[in-house]
Amino acid sequence: MSETVISQMSELFGVFSNPNRLKILLAIKEAGEMNVSQLEASVSLSQSAISHQLASMRESRILKVEIAGKQRIYRFADKHIEELLEIVIQHMSEA
């Protein structure tokens, strides 16, 4: 496996190592898609903290955003992210 791929994998797992990002990802997994206001109500973080984490996850290609009027709707960039979260959830429930 190339160093580039290993570096990208490390970046992806680094995203999952942050509890606030995990809260956001799990909320989006549950809802399918969410805007910042919905996330703020769901994960009990400030709007600025949520926006900061969302930007990081967009840069890492974990989330994508759709602009609908004045709102930004966030969802998983692809099904693999949701599947990876589900695998981790299953692993933790079996531990």
Overall number of structural domains: 1
Q: Look at the structure and give the CATH class.
A: Mainly Alpha
What is the overall pLDDT average? 94
The number of strands is: 2
Q: What would the keywords be for this entry?
A:
95 residues, alpha+beta, Arc Repressor Mutant, subunit A, two-stranded antiparallel sheet, 5 helices
List the helices and strands and how they pair.
Elements: H1 3-16, H2 19-31, H3 36-43, H4 47-59, E1 63-68, E2 71-76, H5 79-94
Antiparallel strand pairs: 1-2
Tell me about this structure.
This protein is α+β, with helices and mostly antiparallel strands and 95 residues long. The protein has a single domain, classed as Winged helix-like DNA-binding domain superfamily/Winged helix DNA-binding domain (Arc Repressor Mutant, subunit A). Helix content is 67%, strand content 13%. It contains 5 helices and 2 strands, in the order ααααββα. A two-stranded antiparallel sheet has the order 1-2. The chain is globular. The mean pLDDT is 94.
Brief synopsis:
Keywords: DNA-binding, Transcription, Transcription regulation. With 95 residues, the chain is α+β, with helices and mostly antiparallel strands.
